[in-house]
């Protein structure tokens, strides 16, 4: 039996398998390296944050100083602005990197869902960098 483009289009399960494989190759070449770099950066910044901030002491102080959820959150906000500029920058960089990582991961998972469902082709989903 000869398999041509018309055969792949006529068989939805074969088309879905082909698209999943194409997506897997595309993901490992284009998206996985970016996500790996973001994970390494997140880990590095997290180490920097944890060397300057003792989360255990902050949580213990917050629990003793607050009575409800609003005052608990207010304690963290007040404590953040009392810290040094280096600590504030590290926390800000960590939050920005975490937001980028979540955005890229959601975009990759959305593309996988769209391709797995056979809704759209891979060419219609360029990956933003």
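^ Assign residues to that structure.
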């Amino acid at each position: 039996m000869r398999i041509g483009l018309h055969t792949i289009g006529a068989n939805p399960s074969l088309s879905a398998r082909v698209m999943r494989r194409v997506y897997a190759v595309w993901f490992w070449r284009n998206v996985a390296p970016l996500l790996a770099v973001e994970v390494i950066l997140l880990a590095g910044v997290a180490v920097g944050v944890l060397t300057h901030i003792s989360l255990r002491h902050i949580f213990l102080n917050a629990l003793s100083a607050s009575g409800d959820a609003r005052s608990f959150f207010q304690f963290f906000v007040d404590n953040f602005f009392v810290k040094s500029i280096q600590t504030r920058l590290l926390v800000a960089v960590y939050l920005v990197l975490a937001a980028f990582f979540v955005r890229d991961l959601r975009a990759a998972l959305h593309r996988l869902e769209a391709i797995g469902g056979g809704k759209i082709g891979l060419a219609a989903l360029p990956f933003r960098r």
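The chain has a mean pLDDT of 77.
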